[in-house]
Write a structure and sequence with these properties.
single chain, about 550 residues, alpha+beta, SH3 type barrels, 4 domains, 12-stranded antiparallel beta barrel, 7-stranded antiparallel beta sheet, 11 helices, 26 strands
């Protein structure tokens, strides 16, 4: 087979390529081992065709042709110059040259056919056939005449480009099953695993070795036939539960992979492959790394403005309590049970139940009064209109320690994360080697603020800029619901994380200064800061408190 392929290439080099070059075509040898490409410039266009060698050394080739503008084309976010354009580009009017009807490639006869018929296509005859049909390509280039041996395709419409505009959605926490079925390997393993189980279940029923071998063969076929429709049903159920199939304009959240947790809009559908493309950014679009299967996405609700007040109901985000709230709730139940047992032991069952309920209610009311006895001050209209609005968002992944701070339009202003502090400091100050909290401006990593622990009991942290201390953050409650914020050149603030609510606020003797609304999930705080305050340093403190509340409360 290799000898036949070599003889065919030699015949092309001897007879066809010189004839083509005499017509003004220039040979491109950059991909010679796989493709022999030729281009010819005219006054208006570039005519290009290529011979694509058959794989695995088979003696044959395809002839593909196209026509491109002189200034090149833009395709999939990239620009291709005329010297780099190949005839298979979907953005061009293109086609194939077929030797005869029902056959798309020029080839020598197979060795078996030559052995049976005692005759075969010589390499010279194949080359002569290409030479005879090549005028049909010339006619198509000159006046778009479609010959009998041409298979042509129109230029594909340009692929939609994402707008990269910020979108706001209500994040969801994917279930364990959603994350499990979002992995590609699960479906392949399930397909093979079901087939193997069916195969073994049939094989063990065989009474003898011969019957077992026969059942192994039959069981393999039956297993594959059973696994495919079963997994197809499971796949459609998972897609339906995720909110799919998805269409252009839908707002979705990525479940698995490097972009897990990100919310973006669908901008292109690939229904034949059960996939869509979502707007994750410029680099992902140009590198086609924004393609996801239906089971790797889930639909989310759209938010018009994440900083607008009243967007989130006054209930715990994601339907859960914080750790402190859960401990208080269980403690109240325990108090009620104890009172119930004491009263029931002396006065009977029903007085005990009534006393337990009444005692639990009084205990719960006392805790709420002691923790939330300071009335929440709501922002006035002037503050809502002129105050600085920010979105503090913790990103999923890396144990929830990284995040971003956006403005009201969704533009990223600062990024924050953790890193090892150096020098580490004394063991008494930081016995568990808590990492530094670092927040820096987007695109300016050197413009950063560092928040470092300086005391373990009581818990305190200092805010540093360029190595100098510019403020402190102190925990003022063992329940982690009050923090003192002191920033140089500004009044000291007390930030309160009220229990059993999603509306937090902070202020000083001069009145309230900052408000935070949790939602749509606990990983997002919508922050409002009174005009006239140092928003950069105060937002660094608020982002740090948010991170502490999310990870430890």
């Amino acid at each position: 087979m290799k000898a036949a392929s070599t003889s065919l290439q030699a015949a092309l080099e001897e007879r066809f390529f010189p004839r083509i070059e005499s017509l003004g075509f220039v040979r491109d040898k950059r991909q010679e081992s796989r493709i022999a490409c030729f281009r010819r410039r005219t006054e208006t266009v570039v005519q290009v065709f290529a011979l694509l060698w058959a794989m695995r050394g088979r003696p044959g080739f395809w002839v593909q042709f196209a026509e491109a503008p002189l200034n090149g084309i833009d395709y999939a976010g990239k620009h291709f110059s005329p010297e780099d354009i190949m005839p298979g580009n979907f953005a061009l009017a293109r086609g194939w040259l077929a030797p005869q009807r029902g056959q798309r490639w020029f080839r020598l006869s197979s060795p078996w056919r030559r052995l049976i018929s005692r005759q075969g296509d010589e390499a010279g005859a194949v080359v002569q056939r290409v030479i005879e049909l090549f005028p049909e390509l010339i006619a198509w280039w000159e006046n778009r005449t479609k010959g009998a041996h041409l298979i042509t395709f129109p230029a594909a419409p340009p692929r939609p480009a994402p707008s990269h505009a910020p979108v706001f959605g209500c994040p969801v926490k994917p279930s364990l099953l959603q994350r499990f079925f979002a992995r590609d390997g699960v479906w392949t393993t399930g397909f093979l695993g079901i087939a193997v189980v069916v195969d073994l279940a049939l094989a063990v029923q065989a009474p003898g070795l011969r019957q077992m071998l026969a059942l192994v063969f039959v069981g393999a076929i039956a297993g594959f036939m059973a696994s495919w429709p079963l997994l197809k049903v499971v796949w459609h159920i998972r897609v339906w539960m995720n909110g799919g199939p998805f269409h252009k304009g839908d707002l979705v959240q990525v479940i698995a992979g490097a972009h897990a947790g990100k919310i973006a809009a669908v901008y292109e559908e690939w229904p034949t492959r059960n996939q869509v493309r979502v707007d994750l950014g410029e680099s992902e679009w140009t590198e086609v790394k924004d393609v996801f299967s239906y089971v790797q996405l889930c639909k989310v609700k759209k938010l018009e403005s994440p900083c607008s007040p009243g967007k989130v109901e006054n209930k715990s985000a994601e339907g859960g309590f914080t750790l402190v709230e859960f401990l208080i709730f269980t403690s109240v139940i325990s108090v009620g049970v104890i009172i119930d047992n004491v009263i029931a032991h002396r006065f009977g069952k029903w007085p005990g139940i009534g006393g337990g309920i009444l005692g639990a209610m009084l205990c719960f009311a006392a805790i709420l009064w002691s923790c939330n006895r300071i009335k929440v001050v709501t922002p006035d209209k002037e503050c809502l209109a002129q105050g600085a609005k920010y979105i503090c968002q913790i990103e999923r992944g890396d144990k929830g320690r990284n995040g971003v701070v956006r403005d009201e339009q969704g533009v990223i202003l600062w990024r924050y994360g953790t890193r090892e502090n150096w020098p580490p400091g004394r063991w008494v100050e930081n016995p568990f080697r808590k990492l530094d909290f670092v927040i820096s401006a987007e695109g300016e990593p050197k413009d950063e603020l560092v928040i470092r622990r300086i005391s373990f009991l009581p818990s305190a942290f200092k805010i540093m800029e360029a190595g100098n201390s510019v403020g402190t953050i102190r925990m003022r409650s063992f329940l982690r619901i009050q923090y003192g914020i002191e920033i140089q050149g500004a009044e000291s603030l007390t930030f309160r994380l009220s229990l059993f609510t999603v509306r937090f606020w902070g202020g000083s003797a001069g009145g309230a200064a900052v408000w935070a609304l949790v939602g749509p999930s606990k990983m997002q705080w919508n922050v409002l800061i009174r005009p006239g305050l140092d928003s950069r340093k105060l937002m660094a403190a608020i982002a740090f408190i948010h991170n502490e509340w999310w990870n430890y409360s």
